[in-house]
Amino acid sequence: MLEIKNLKIHFPVTRGLFRRSVGYVHAVDGVSLKIESGRTLGLVGESGCGKTTLGRSITGLYKPTEGKVIFKGKNIFEANRKELWKIRRDLQMIFQDPFESLNPRQTIDNILEEPFIIHNAGAAAQRREKVKDVLRKVGMPQSSLPRFPHEFSGGQRQRIGIARAIALKPKMIVCDEPVSALDVSIQSQILNLLLTLQQEMNLTYLFISHDLAVVRHISDNIGVMYLGKIVEYCDADELYNNGLHPYTKALISAIPVPNPDVIRKKQLLQGEAPSPIDPPSGCRFHTRCPKAGDICKKKEPELLNLKTTGINGPHFVACHLAGE
Q1: What is the pLDDT of residues 211-256, one digit of tens each?
Q2: Which domains does the chain have, with CATH numbers?
Q3: With the C-alpha atoms ordered 71, 75, 76, 82, is the resulting torsion angle positive or negative?
């Protein structure tokens, strides 16, 4: 469904009266991934690692410095305006904050009718019926239509955001931390709704989150991102049972265990993540890695498939010491 090839997104840092460029933020720095049709790729990592930038670039909201995003065989950054208009019908996005992503001046029926108007999908009467149908799919009553976004709870607003994303029956949806702003009890409802819609509509998801427990529940494969790069990528169960990168191990060790009798030894990382404006040489994680050696400081590791450890398909790791 989607293939990312060596994607780089660098934002210029400007200073002075004439706003001259003095450097670049390496938000995404050479990411390559594939997402198969009807499956979910989870993308995890701490704040500032480039997850959201990657997700927004896939939908064409950010232009890349280098690389390709190939959706259904077409590089979206080479598409003309008419082709991009068609691509966006099949490639939608759910945003993190439903209150910020919904127009507070529009009623719900206007918000949900807008995609059909933009893409000339039916007459007015047909659009109204489609709006009612899409609202029913996300579990919201039709009495919601004349109301405004501020009249709903956070979970209800996110359901409306999901309804807008699926209105045109897309092939793929980028989910940018869709449950992080919600209560834990509501998170499970939204996750189950996304899984149900995936089965009914054969949707493909890129699910972005900083919560590994949430990602495991919904994802088929997981990519771990650190400072603009993918450091590990494999099957979801394989990652949890046999994570190899030190950063992945630290993330997994931080997941709360819902059993007071079980004590998990946490692997605490020292220091803060380096600045993406001036990333470290060699392995970008070596400044916080407890096992880093000289080679880690000098040579950047490649993302290699360690087939001997992959029990559920390929297991890619970017670490000089992963095979030891």
Answers
A1: 888 888 888 899 999 998 999 998 888 888 888 888 888 888 877 7
A2: 2-284+295-317 (3.40.50.300)
A3: negative
